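Aim 2 progress update. The chain analyzed this quarter is reproduced below.
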Amino acid sequence: MSMADGIGARALRFLDAQKLDHSPDHYAFAYRYLKGVDREFSDAVDREIEGGVRLREEAVRTLMPEIVSPFADGTFDRLTIQLLELLTKVASATGGLNQDLTRTAAELVSAEPQQIQRLVVFMIERTAQAESSLSAALQQAQVLRDTLNGVREEMGRDPLTGLPGWEAMVERLDACLTAIGHCSVAVVDIDQLDEFVATHGPAMRDRVLKAAAMTLKDACAPYQVGRWGDTSFLTVIDEPDLATGIARLESACAEMAARHLKMRETDEPLGQVTLSAGVATSRGRLPRDVTKAAVRLSRKARKQGGNRVLAEPRLIEIG
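Predicted structure tokens:
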């Protein structure tokens, strides 16, 4: 059983223990909690269920606000219709062909010589018809696949920043390690975020997160940048030249520090916003161990004053 399968089964047991129905939103909540990547989220859930207290629906919505589904605009209905049409087309083409060929084969057994040519011509024409129908079904299947890939990508996006969400970033990291065997990751935090939230409230948190997301995405391209928990970002550096990745992160830090964010209500300066990043390389470690190492470095960078990038040494001493 894969890790994902194990967590999936545990998520369902968790929902049963909390007496929550198996809705997609509840499953996503349980999966995120049990995955354990977002430590702040997991700690908040632990506080809610401490002492054996069961989660209430209100607590679930508070801890993990509902994400607008890409199916809300009728996409799900359209996909269902396309799938049913495709299945009908394939069944009609293959089922009818099977019946016709079976009947014709039986007729050939006792057919007179003058009938054989007619039956053979019929089989050729019938096969051509089925081939044409299956070709059309194949084209429809390709369109449906492209649509589903688009929906899947959209579902994996963070609704606040538009960046890939943490599950999408986990998949990206796994794919990178599978494809090339090694990579580096950077966990990036906003140094003053807690201070801004305490002073100006949650709305300012969202504005600062959006600004940081835009800066990181532009400065770190073509590397993939996504959300990593509620207050962090993750960058996957999928090339051996770590120096280039570090340089892009340092550029992001400089650009963010140079921005002049203002209070929307009063137009007063918000104050300088800076980033801290920790960079870790895979070195044969599991993805979760690499990201944990990057988190530790990011926290260390903040303790050293922030607005800096700390990376693991290229070589680890032995002995």
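Residues 79 and 147 are 8 Å apart (CA to CA). The first strand starts at residue 184 and ends at 190. These observations will guide the mutagenesis experiments scheduled for the next reporting period.
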